[in-house]
Model the fold of this input.
Amino acid sequence: MGTLPGRKDIPPWVKVPEDLKDPEVLQVQTQLLEAMFGPAGSRIPYIEQVSKVMLELKVLESSGLTEVLVYGSYLYKLRAKWMLQSMAEWHRQRRERGMLKLEDAMKALQLGSWMK
Done:
């Protein structure tokens, strides 16, 4: 990728320009972002500091997905990408289980009203 990220507050652990050249990219369902990164991205600075990377989010308007670009040294990028993919999958499964429980509860309520 030829363009550098537009952020002005590049963390001190990210080396400019070499760590900004080839970001790792993953796509996450936009609805999972708050669960992963906190309200208004409040956990992003902590995740960046612990992972020694810089994150940039780009919403893909038409698809309901957001690209997460991970900048940093090679190994830190790969580790952070794996961690973020794991977080997204965990939150997706948790949401799915919650929907299944809700569906079961709704079925039970409908069943109960038919018996009366």
Notes: The chain has one domain: 18-112. The helical segments are 33-37, 44-51, 74-115. The first strand starts at residue 24 and ends at 29.
